[in-house]
Automatic annotation (TrEMBL):
The chain crosses the membrane at residues 12-35, 128-147. It comes from Streptomyces beihaiensis. This is VanZ family protein. InterPro entries: Teicoplanin_resist-assoc, VanZ-like. Keywords: Membrane, Transmembrane, Transmembrane helix. Residues 24-142 form the VanZ-like domain. The keyword Transmembrane applies. The keyword Transmembrane applies.
Length: 180
C-alpha cells in the first residue's frame, strides 16, 4: 500500500495552528507586560502630540534614545511575522499581506494604549503607537516575503519518493479489441 503525502494543504494547516498558538501566547505576554500597574510616585502627562516623545528621547542622548526607540519598535514587531503565519496563506499578495498586518498591528497597539488609560501608572503615548506599528511593518518586510517565497519553492518541487520500498512497476493490462 502506498502512502500519499498531503500536499500544501496539510502544511498550511500546521503553520496556521502553530501561528495561532504562538500568537495567543505572545499577545498574553504583551498584555502582561504593558497592562500591569506601576508603582510610581508620579505620572507624566499623556503624550498626544506625534513625535514629541521621540524628540524628548533624542534630547536625552543617543544611547537612551536608541534604547527607548528600540523598545518601542521591538514590542509588537513579532506580530509582523505571527499574524501572517496565523493566516496560513503562503500565496497571498505581498502588499495586501503587509497592509493587513500593519493595520492589525496598529489596531492592537491602539487597543493597548486605550486599555492603559485605566491602569495606574500608565499613560497614553501616541509615539508608542507609531513605533509599534513601524516595528510590525519592518518585521513583516524583513521576514515574511522571503519565507513565503521559500515555502512556494518547496511546494513547487516534485514530491520525493515514498519511504516504503517500491513494489515494482505498475502492472498493465493489454488492450483487447472489440469483437465483431
Amino acid at each position: 500500500m502506498q502512502r500519499h503525502r498531503s500536499g500544501g494543504r496539510g502544511a498550511a494547516v500546521r503553520f496556521r495552528t502553530a501561528g495561532l498558538g504562538l500568537l495567543a501566547a505572545y499577545l498574553l505576554l504583551v498584555g502582561w507586560i504593558t497592562l500591569r500597574p506601576l508603582d510610581v510616585p508620579w505620572v507624566s502627562a499623556a503624550n498626544l502630540h506625534p513625535l514629541a516623545g521621540i524628540r524628548a528621547d533624542l534630547a536625552l542622548g543617543w544611547r537612551e534614545a536608541a534604547r527607548r526607540i528600540g523598545e518601542g519598535l521591538a514590542l509588537l514587531a513579532p506580530l509582523g511575522v505571527l499574524l501572517p503565519l496565523a493566516g496560513g496563506r503562503p500565496h497571498a499578495s505581498t502588499w495586501g499581506s503587509l497592509m493587513r498586518t500593519v493595520a492589525a498591528g496598529a489596531l492592537i497597539s491602539l487597543g493597548i494604549e486605550l486599555l492603559q488609560t485605566g491602569v495606574p501608572g500608565r499613560v497614553v503615548d501616541v509615539d508608542a503607537l507609531l513605533l509599534n506599528t513601524v516595528g510590525v511593518a519592518l518585521a513583516h518586510l524583513a521576514v515574511v516575503p522571503a519565507a513565503r517565497a521559500r515555502l512556494r519553492r518547496r511546494s513547487a518541487r516534485p514530491p520525493r519518493p515514498a519511504e516504503e520500498p517500491s513494489q515494482g512497476p505498475t502492472p498493465t493490462i493489454p488492450r483487447v479489441g472489440i469483437a465483431p
